[in-house]
Amino acid sequence: GLLVYLLPPLLVKLSGMYPLTFWQTLKFHLRTDWLLIKAVREPGVRHDLVLMSLTSLLPALIMAFRWSASFGDSSRLGTTLVNYLFHAVNTVIFGALVWVMFDPPFSARQLAQEISPNVPALTFHYLGVLCIGYYCGYFLLVFGKAPVPSRRGGTKPDPALPAELLWLCPVIVAVTLAAAALAAGLLIYKNAPLIRAVNDDSLLQYARFSTQNLPRGGACLLSDQPYQTYLVQAVLARDGRENSYPVLDTQSLPSPTYHKYLHQRFPQIGALTVTTNETAMGVVGPPHVLALLNQLSKSNSLCYLNPSFGYYFELFYQEPHGLIYAMKLLPTDTLLPPALDKSLIAENESFWTQVVDRSRPAIASALHPPNYKKPTGAIGWFMKHLHPAPEPNPNALFAGTMYSRSLNFLGVQVQRAAEPGDRHAAELEQAATLFSEAQELNSDNVVAGINLAFNKNLRAGAADNSVDSSRLAADQFGKYRSWDEVLIACGPFDETSFCFKNGAWLVQYGMMGQAVASFHRVHQLAPDNLATRLFLAQIYILARQADKAMEALRDPLAQPDHFALTEFNSSELNLLAASVHFLKDENAEGVALVEREITRHPDDETLLTVATRAFFMRGLYTNALHLINHKLARSPN
Hints:
The protein is mainly alpha-helical. The protein is 62% helix and 3% strand. The chain has helices at 7-15, 22-38, 43-54, 57-63, 76-100, 108-115, 122-144, 168-198, 202-210, 226-238, 256-265, 276-281, 286-299, 342-367, 377-386, 394-416, 426-441, 446-460, 483-490, 496-508, 512-525, 530-542, 546-558, 567-583, 587-600, 605-617, 621-634, and strands spanning 220-223, 247-249, 302-304, 316-321, 324-329. It has a five-stranded mixed beta sheet, sandwiched between helices. Helix 14 (342-367) runs parallel beside helix 17 and helix 22 runs antiparallel to helix 23 (546-558). The protein is elongated, with a radius of gyration of 34 Å. It starts with 6 loop residues before the first helix and ends with a helix.
């Protein structure tokens, strides 16, 4: 069976489509399994694997041996007790194996989901099914046939039961057959609706909608989600358009081997070239990937297949056209993506009305699978006591999750297009509909729920636009465990405190350009928030946009009472203002602000160090030397 490991590398090699050797492909597959094996070291994973083994590996191990009836016991009573005990153990195992097929909480699939959504459980179920066949056959064989003499000539072996209980044999056989028939019937009752649902066209619809608004004349499509990539590639191949719309997996772009494959498969792309040094190191750095995409955008249309974030969007922003997101270069003078105009909003509204109307029935059915805890009739009574887990249509749920994230993304863009302070703006009503539909198609979209609640407060004129970190409780994220996991699954936030948190998170990871949009939104909603203005000023200074930086600082400098300035943040404010003056070659004003802060805080080592560096970088060596001498006088050693 392990020879199957050799099949994918062999197919890759024989296809001639991929610049990979047999051993490179095999090593990749083995490394994937090795990572899973390493996870067994975690106590929770070991516990779940032990439980999964009880209804798969253990029964297979027991049936793999031919057990002696006596185990060395010479007494007839001992042998009889051992036989009865063996029958009882087999009965318990047989019952547990059949029960597991109904997917109770201790089944392999349920336990595998606790480890990770991508951990396969089918192997365990295969073992369980094999064991069911053996143990069912055990009862039919042992109790269904009269004992026959040994082929070696000897006496007949003892019957399965004493003579006075032989009448139970046909009963046990009948009960075994009845149990098998009942289990098969209940499994058909449970699984037939799901099989019909899974074979619907949810995924085909999603792929069709994803390719509905592609640019005419071809485009390069970017995607960071493999399942989505496969679906779009499949429908493009079905339509004969795969060469006009190559799909690039963004997670593979740092690999030189992937670039080589793209050149072979899509020679028309042209721009994706890597250096010899990068090929030798086996990695293409983010700056080069970004430069390649920038170069590619000049000769090809670039589109993303899903709302996303990351270092690509330090250069580009996403313009929504249904489920296609055109990659546009960010304006160099503001770093802000332009607001959606009314025609673009209308185009997207028309598209999503069609999508939601056609997709809602299947997704709603998947979100509300049969509730076996409320039995109806005899079959319902059996199902209730088997405790099967509700099993929704995964295809419809996947499509609903993708639609929901895109609806939430569009809702945020539409809401930000509304005039600030106008609670009767049509865009707010449109955004409310989009957030509501996003929640309807994915009940786990916590971001859409937060955005919808904020939207209601905006329309009612009762929104609390202050930045309050207490609103950012982790329990609001539901099943999502980290900030980036929430954004990937649900889309962006538009509530004031969450926008501020998102901006600070982006700054922490060096994505300054994207942070501007979040902080600009906070500035719109809470213009008196000093921290937001300081962040905006820092980013614009780094981008060498002095006027934008001074625009962020102007009100706090002119009206300090409105911003609750303290000793600490007033120093930061003045130093940023000095940096703006230096950036505009207004050295005298910058020096005056710095020296004023040094006069106020002569013993602040951090301030003295920052000021010295600032003077040095501007070529103000006399000022820098004065500060150095001041520090030497205080600390001569």
